[in-house]
Write a structure and sequence with these properties.
By secondary structure, the chain is mostly helical. It contains nine helices and no strands. The relative contact order is 0.11.
Length: 184
């Protein structure tokens, strides 16, 4: 069963096959957690809570999953919506940032690189707004295609392309201004 596609496993999850869910969980839980933790300013507690909620939603919505779509895109869409709901619950983005301000750029930039350059990049990523950090993580942490990101964010692909281009230009300028080299 481990070699089955995510979409085939979801058919089994819809029939309440626990083993199928465990396989999906093992494939994606670390990735979902990193995405949620990055979105919640590095707060492990809230990321764990949201991960549990995500898993519950995946199981309870399994029968409505469209098997012609990508499970990975579908699951990250749900995760993104949980983040948006948490922002609404707290009140707004600024309050959320104040409440959970612990940066987690090491989830995106490889943690074994401790050079000054890496430190500057991590610092600049941590200063991005939530939407930009999310876009950066989906593209470079998850290595999703622009089309997949567009589906997750419910935006036209052209919008995602221009947002990513602006983000990379902005990040590049910030890194140079902070004393780093720009190779983005």
């Amino acid at each position: 069963m481990k070699s089955q596609t995510d979409e085939r496993l979801m058919k089994k999850v819809a029939r309440l096959n626990e083993e199928a869910f465990v396989i999906l969980y093992n494939r994606y839980s670390d990735r979902w957690y990193k995405f949620l933790k990055s979105s919640m300013f590095g707060n492990s507690e809230i990321a764990n809570d949201l991960l549990q909620e995500l898993c519950l939603k995946i199981v309870t919505r399994a029968s409505s999953f469209d098997h012609t779509r990508s499970f990975r895109v579908w699951s990250f869409t749900i995760a993104r919506n949980l983040v948006k709901n948490e922002i609404r619950r707290v009140g707004n983005y600024s309050k959320l940032k104040d409440k959970y301000q612990r940066t987690a750029p090491e989830l995106i930039v490889r943690p074994y690189n401790t050079s000054d350059e890496s430190r500057i990049i991590k610092q600049q990523i941590s200063l991005l707004c939530q939407e930009d950090r999310e876009l950066f993580y989906l593209r470079f942490g998850e290595e999703l295609k622009l089309k997949e990101i567009a589906l997750i964010q419910n935006q036209p692909i052209g919008t995602v392309k221009s947002r990513l281009s602006r983000l990379m230009n902005k990040l590049s300028r910030k890194i140079v201004n902070a004393g780093g080299k720009s190779e983005m």
